[in-house]
Amino acid sequence: MANSDLSHYKEMFLEVALEYVTALRQDVQLLATNATDAAVIERLHRSAHSLKSQSNFMQYNDLAQYCKVLEFYFRDVKEGKVQVSSESLPLLSQSVEKLSQSLESIKNEDRELPLAHTIEQMAVTLGISM
Amino acid sequence: MQTSPCPPAGGHPSPNRRGVRGRYYFMRILLIEDDLFFQKFYARKLTENNFTVDTAVDGNEGILKMQQQKPNIVLLDLIMPNKDGFAVLSFRASDPSLQLIPVIVFSTLGQEQDIHKALQMGASDYVYKSFFDFSMLLNKIHTVISGQSKPQ
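^ inputs. structure came back:
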């Protein structure tokens, strides 16, 4: 739950966060046609990083940790340590939808989705050490 | 360095000579920050506290606005595309007219080396972006503007 003072900025957070989720969704779809597009991967990395930072700020800690896994994954892709595969693409799409669902929960119920278990699973599947 | 009087932290307007309540004094702040949420958030908070806020989304735009607008103070994110905060500080150090403008940098917890480097490059102080303490930011702005800038 966000700090009571920061709760006044929930709408601002959601407005910007939804833009990032939309961008993530579109760019993951672009990866399906070209898994090595450097510009797309850079955008994915920055979107995940930015969404992590603002989620941290608003104290949506699970959401921040979830984004951190994605940020670290796309960082590793950028650096050539891992490659986007046909196996990881569906997981990335599902991850973006999970982010969207958590934002809906914040909007409608004023609380993020509990994601701790999912974060752990996702990190293992994507080969990320947190 | 300009030593303009600072508005009260609460931003309470004061009566003018005609007795009509008006704004006391606007300090112009340039916020150089690529992250849309932090840009909007800090711009709104500063505006609520009677600052005039300009924004720039990267270092290139930030330098241009510093040159054009000569703000009273700059809040500068360090990690940005298209010229990062360090490049802005380096440019500022090479331009005597920009050296008069004090800079407070935004940093992320755990990047103390970045803070040290920024201070060495001429930043007056720093705040951690992810930990919201607006009164601390206001105090630092007032301290830096008044010329008592020592990083905390």
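Helices of chain B lie at 36-48, 59-69, 85-94, 96-99, 112-120, 134-145. Strands of chain B lie at 14-15, 21-22, 28-32, 52-56, 73-77, 103-107, 125-128.
thumbs up if we can close this ticket
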